[in-house]
Amino acid sequence: MMENKELKYLTGLNRVKNRYESGYFFVEGKRLVESAISYNANIKNIYATESFLEENNSLKDLIEKKNHTINTILRKQLEKISFTKNPSGIGALCKISEYSLDSSKNGKWLYLDEISDPGNLGTLLRSAAYFNFTNIALSENCVDPYNPKVVRSAMGAHFKIELYLKVELNNFQNNYCVFGADQNGDNYKDIQYPKNLILVLGNEAHGLSKKTVASLDNIISIKKTGFGESLNVGSAGSIIMSHLSEI
What we know:
By secondary structure, the chain is an alpha/beta fold. Helices cover 33% and strands 21% of the residues. It has helices at 4-11, 16-22, 30-38, 50-55, 57-65, 75-81, 118-130, 148-154, 210-213, 233-244, and strands at 24-28, 43-48, 70-72, 90-95, 108-112, 135-138, 162-164, 177-187, 197-201, 218-221. It has a 6-stranded parallel beta sheet, with helices on one face. A 4-stranded mixed beta sheet has the order 1-4-2-3.
């Protein structure tokens, strides 16, 4: 049975301050824990109920094969730690990776300008990993990428990308062509893109800020061919990243 001190610590990770002071975040659910193990995440501890382990022998074997320790935990304790109403029975404490910003690194970057919805951010991280946008910079005032809702939505993307927090867009201007996505821009399919570029996506409600627009080389958009006012930023970003991944 877990001691109260550790239970309190894990429960506290639902707050941003505690995550960054400790340097750890909590992932839960079978698929996320499998991803953390498979992608060689820096895992400090794995917690699981006895009933979960009895029903998931293959995952238990994978954990043991990778030399991770399983800490058995009572169901009622896991429910206190969990950020979901019906936890599946397993979770893992993972290290927050820290990277030094190198804005001269070749390739494609994704820059997120004040994205506020956890679900949208998680979707964008998941799509970024899928389309090999592995370097992602977040502006000041973005939702925390280690927010439990973001982590769930990203479905393991955190373990395959590099996240840079509170980054100014002008850090990239000398080495990249900077493309911002907006409804009032050139058709994204009609642009000749360089190898080194940065795609900028703006806030769900307000779009790209004036400060951000001033740093752009071009504004691109997805032309509407049907009905609806606009696309969700997660959907729009995914569509454009899919196109850019083929360049």
